[in-house]
Specification:
The complex is a heterodimer. Chain A is an alpha/beta fold. Chain A contains 18 helices and 19 strands. Chain A folds into two domains: 8-260 and 456-469, Aldehyde Dehydrogenase, Chain A, domain 1, CATH 3.40.605; 263-451, Aldehyde Dehydrogenase, Chain A, domain 2 (3-Layer(aba) Sandwich). In chain A, the strands form four sheets. Chain A has a seven-stranded mixed sheet, with helices on both faces. A seven-stranded mixed sheet of chain A has the order 14-15-16-13-12-17-18, with helices on both faces. In chain A, α5 (112-122) packs across α7 (162-173) and α12 (276-291) packs across α13. By secondary structure, chain B is an alpha/beta fold. Chain B contains 19 helices and 15 strands. Chain B has helices at residues 4-8, 14-23, 25-28, 33-36, 41-59, 64-72, 99-103, 107-115, 133-143, 165-181, 190-194, 210-221, 240-254, 264-267, 270-294, 306-318, 346-354, 453-458, 475-481, and strands at residues 89-90, 149-152, 158-161, 198-206, 230-237, 300-305, 330-334, 363-365, 372-375, 381-382, 387-392, 405-414, 423-433, 445-446, 451-452. In chain B, a hairpin with a 5-residue loop joins β2 (149-152) and β3 (158-161). In chain B, α10 crosses α12 and α16 packs across α17 (346-354). The chains are: A alpha/beta, B alpha/beta. Chains A and B meet through α14 of A and α6, β1, α7 and α18 of B.
């Protein structure tokens, strides 16, 4: 059978010739794609002046385009997306139901008010649409505007929607967008681009959207492309190795906006252990943050610190919470969480090694590859915490917040907290250790970061734009150095 | 005593032979490489099955972790080799203690943990005076037959495998001396068995990691205990706690964290690590002189992993210095083949320096067991007769058939193991071939492309926003991971 093809789409033009094979491995499938070396010269925008067509569009025009595109992405009608989804079934370790859920969400992704909110909260619509005047103490008028830039996006492949959020961010900032597709999802962003070409081949947004796959680190492609005369900003989502080899191209005129690989945790305060009812509520929330989307996201909870204080029945309470959480994960609806297609081998060997140790650990479930809860009776996470996946979480029994802080570092993205009131103990200290997001437990997968206001410790959309000032001295002479 | 000859000519029963085999596999094969690897396949199978039964019967109630596993699954006896499959330990079991215990220096609890993994009784070992990992392991090997080994992976957690002295003998004398010095098809010569060889060792002469502890046994079995024949780069023990500290520092650094979870007293020793690093070039230089000048034309045994030898070989070569060992020496070089990154020219540099026509012994082994699987002239790694392989489907962990070629996760039951349970599921991906090899050795054989699953999975160009563990790639990793 012929390999599936991941086409290159350059500014409205679809290329599916000059194919070469990219052999897959692990959860990466074998596919064909056009030889990127033959097309790399055509990928960048030939001149920054060619961004001006985006400035003929108003925000409402942009919202119109995205809204119409959203309706074209309906998975029941869109053949490009159907094909991409079907290929993704085989290509990723995620079960079908979870993939279906992702693709189903695409048609509402570009909801007009949602995109408007992204524009307002991530940059500010006034700054995107025109010059915003600020009167300074000395009477000078400082006008500021956010301009689009020529951007390249190295998107992650563990969630199919990253191409869509990238398009939304580029469209509202009037940026030129090149997506480097990941080998673990080479099809979805291409399907998005194909839909745009079908819908409005000559529209400026279509003309400023390109998608291609090349092997990350392919110097023949990247040496040419990653140059300040071609690209001004590179947005890299995850992939430590990927980010490392991009850094060698960074120089004045070419900026890296790095959304480093992340991992997330939960923190449960003593109040949650009070009684059966509070335990059950906590377990239900925890199950959502652990099991949701099969724990594939960087916001998915992997380690839960249960601060039990000095209560005598801490061990029993944590054990109860563990069992309830396990049960609640198993009871999650299959469209949201389901038995993993293949349980990670390395992880299984770690979990099984602890299974027979009831003095310091307790393992709940996991014998059938369905997911597991590992309770640490001592206040440290398991040493294989970095491998936790496939609906497997570690509940750590702690006495105090000091034990929690040991688990927080620069890789810590989201901390789901319960009860809500317990956040006050954490909110002014965990950011100093590296944590980037606090959220009410049960909502870790809410797309807060995608608004762009605060995402992995930065404001990525605000950094994608070029902030330009226009200082007006007319009528003021006394602050000029010449006066 | 009963030997393989008695089994083959019918003067011993399978049961008698199996008892002798597991008591002392080397004497059972009369110290002969040829005899070890010439047992007809069906007879070897019968011998291994009986030996496995005896091992299980003897160990079932003496290794607490095994007792638990067998009880839980209601396994009271073994009649076929495959019956032991549910009783194989994951390799990770040897680091399944809570980190917190080492962090707090609670060696009494660490001993209690180790006690569950060995048939030796450690309940009487008094660890109250132990203040370091090194001291704890010294104590255990001083008062018991155990000589445990440690290693530590990328997360900085140390493993502890309770090997005993007999296990070390089988591994070093049976695995290395017998298999690497003798020629297959010929009886062992007196020199093969008794000659003192010069042992060259590219790091510390002693310690508790496999790579630090092994030289004491090489000295015993290759140099016959002779100091004059023992040439370590450093004549002091490698300090286990400093290794632990180094691994912890690196793990913390990889996480972007300045906090290192070790006892304060250990953290205060960080200067010693730097001092050691500083002293190394001078010691390496003196060692190179010894290899090049003093051992010219001598019969040596040297293990020269590229991670340790490349940076000393390169400057030596630049000065025109290279080795010139006797042709019947045993030289092994390489990278261990498990996902290390080396400079592009490593092979050339190592080859030129060792000057041994690339005539290296190549083998596969792992420190938790005593099996050593040596490459034949057809490039295949033949299993030691005391290692029973189980190749598992990488996805489902189902046992793959014992026929033809199969690729999967390697598990072994090592019949020779005394200090720990012989059943182990490794993290290695191997390809096995059950058919006959043209070289004439009778055991099943592996391809030399052996990878770790953890490396295999991280090797593609897939990008995820989720942080995952990373493979490291230098000498420290080699030493701590070996």
């Amino acid at each position: 059978m012929a390999n599936p093809i991941a086409p290159i789409i350059i500014r409205g033009e679809v290329i599916d010739t000059d194919l070469i094979e990219y052999p897959g491995r692990g959860d990466v499938m074998t596919f064909d794609a056009p030889d990127p070396r033959k097309f790399v010269d055509r990928l960048p925008l030939s001149s920054p002046a060619k961004l001006t067509d985006l400035y003929d569009l108003s925000l409402e025009d942009i919202l119109d385009y995205l809204e119409e595109l959203g309706s074209c992405l309906d998975i029941n009608k869109n053949e490009h997306m159907q094909r991409s989804r079907d290929l993704t079934y085989d290509a990723t370790p995620l079960p079908r139901e979870i993939i279906d859920m992702g693709y189903k969400g695409f048609s509402s992704f570009f909801n007009r008010e949602q995109v408007r909110q992204i524009a307002e909260k991530s940059v500010g619509i006034d700054y995107l649409e025109g010059w915003v005047p600020h009167k300074l103490n000395d009477g000078v008028i400082m006008k500021v505007r956010a301009f689009g830039s020529r951007t390249l996006h190295i998107v992650a492949g563990n969630g199919p929607g990253l191409g869509l959020i990238t398009l939304a961010r580029c469209a509202i900032t009037r940026s030129d967008c090149i997506i480097k597709a990941p080998s673990n999802d080479p099809f979805t962003s291409a399907a998005l681009a194909l839909t745009m070409v079908d819908m409005a081949p000559d529209h400026p947004i279509t003309k400023h959207f390109s998608v291609a796959y090349w092997k990350g680190g392919d110097a023949e492609v990247e040496d040419k492309l990653y140059q300040p005369h071609n690209i001004e900003k590179i947005v890299a989502w995850g992939g430590l190795a990927g980010i490392r080899h991009v850094t060698k191209y960074i120089q004045p005129g070419l900026e890296l906006i790095s959304l480093d690989p992340k991992t997330s945790i939960s923190v449960i305060g003593p109040g949650a252990l009070e009684n059966e009812q509070t335990l059950r509520e906590t377990a239900g929330r925890l199950a959502v943050d652990i099991g949701g989307a099969n724990q594939a996201g960087c916001a998915s909870s992997r380690v839960t610190y249960v601060v039990a204080g000095d209560r005598d029945d801490a061990a029993e309470r944590v054990a109860e919470l563990g069992q309830m959480t396990y049960d609640a994960i198993m009871a999650l609806p299959p469209t949201f969480s389901t038995k993993p297609k293949a349980y990670d081998k390395e992880l299984k060997s770690h979990v099984d090694a602890l299974r027979w140790d009831d003095e310091w650990f307790e393992v709940i479930g996991g014998e059938d590859g369905e997911g597991a809860i590992i309770i640490s009776k001592l206040p440290r996470q398991v040493d294989f915490a970095a491998y936790l996946a496939d609906r497997t979480a570690n509940l750590v029994t702690c006495e105090s917040i000091d034990d929690v802080l040991l688990g927080i570092n620069a890789y810590s993205q989201t901390i789901g907290v319960w009860p809500e009131s317990y956040k006050s103990e954490l909110e002014n200290i965990v950011p100093l250790y590296g944590a980037q997001r606090l959220v009410t437990l049960g909502n870790a997968l809410y797309n807060g970061p995608l608004l762009g206001m605060a995402h992995d410790g930065i404001q990525p959309v605000s950094r994608m734009v070029k902030w330009i000032s226009n200082e007006v001295f007319e009528g003021i002479t006394d602050s000029s150095p010449l006066s | 005593m009963t030997t393989i000859g008695n089994l083959l000519d019918g003067t011993a029963t399978t049961s008698e032979a199996a008892a002798a085999f597991i008591e002392d596999p080397l004497s059972f094969f009369e110290m002969s490489y040829t005899k070890m690897l010439s047992v007809p396949r069906d007879q070897l199978h019968a011998l291994q099955t009986e030996a496995l039964k005896q091992r299980f019967d003897d160990r079932r109630d003496r290794i607490p972790m095994l007792t638990k596993l067998a009880d839980k699954q209601n396994i009271t006896s073994i009649s076929e080799i495959d019956d032991v499959l549910p009783l194989l330990f994951e390799h990770t079991i040897y680091k399944s203690y809570p980190d917190f215990l080492l962090e707090k220096g609670d060696y009494a609890k660490m001993t209690k943990w180790l006690d569950r993994l060995t048939p030796y009784d450690l309940s009487k070992v008094d660890c109250s005076g132990c203040t370091s990992i090194h001291g704890w392991l010294d104590m255990i090997s001083a008062v018991t037959e155990l000589d445990p080994i440690t290693s530590s992976g990328t997360t900085g957690t140390m493993s502890f495998t309770p090997k005993d002295r007999k296990d070390w003998r089988t591994f070093i004398l049976g695995g290395f001396r017998i298999q690497l010095l003798q020629k297959f098809g010929e009886p062992p010569s007196d020199a093969d068995l008794n000659e003192k060889l010069h042992v060259c060792w590219p790091t510390h002469s002693d310690g508790h990691t496999a790579f630090y502890r092994a030289p004491m046994y090489y000295k015993q079995y290759f140099a016959k205990g002779s100091d004059a024949h023992f040439h370590p780069m450093m004549d002091t023990p490698g300090d286990t706690d400093l290794m632990y500290l180094a691994a912890r520092l690196r793990a913390a650094q990889a996480r972007g964290d300045s906090r290192v979870n070790v006892p304060d007293a250990l953290l205060a020793r960080v200067g010693e690590l730097q001092a050691e690093e500083k002293e190394r070039p001078a010691k390496a230089k003196a060692w190179i002189e010894e290899l090049v000048e003093k051992l010219q034309g001598e019969r040596v045994f040297i293990l020269a992993p590229a991670q340790l030898i490349y940076d000393v070989a390169k400057p030596a070569l630049a000065e025109g210095k290279k080795c010139n060992f006797a042709p019947n020496s045993s030289v092994t070089a390489g990278t261990g083949g498990k996902g290390f990154n080396m400079p592009d020219d490593w092979e050339q540099v190592v080859d030129d320096f060792l000057n041994f026509n690339h005539n290296y012994g190549y083998f596969y082994s792992f420190s938790e067991q005593c099996g050593m699987h040596v490459q034949c002239e057809h490039g295949r790694l033949h299993l030691s007769p005391w290692s029973i392989p189980f190749i598992l489907d990488p996805e489902t962990s189902e046992l793959l058939p014992r026929e033809g070629r199969q690729k999967g996760r390697a598990a072994f039951f090592d019949l020779a193991m005394n200090g720990a349970w012989g059943g182990l599921i490794t993290g290695d991906s191997v390809e096995i071939d059950w058919s006959e090899c043209p070289c004439g050795r009778t055991t099943a054989h592996l391809s030399d492309s052996i990878t770790r699953f953890s490396v295999e999975q991280g090797g593609s160009d897939k990008i995820s926003c989720t942080a995952t563990p990373e493979a490291h790639d230098d000498a420290m990793d080699f030493l701590t991971n070996f």
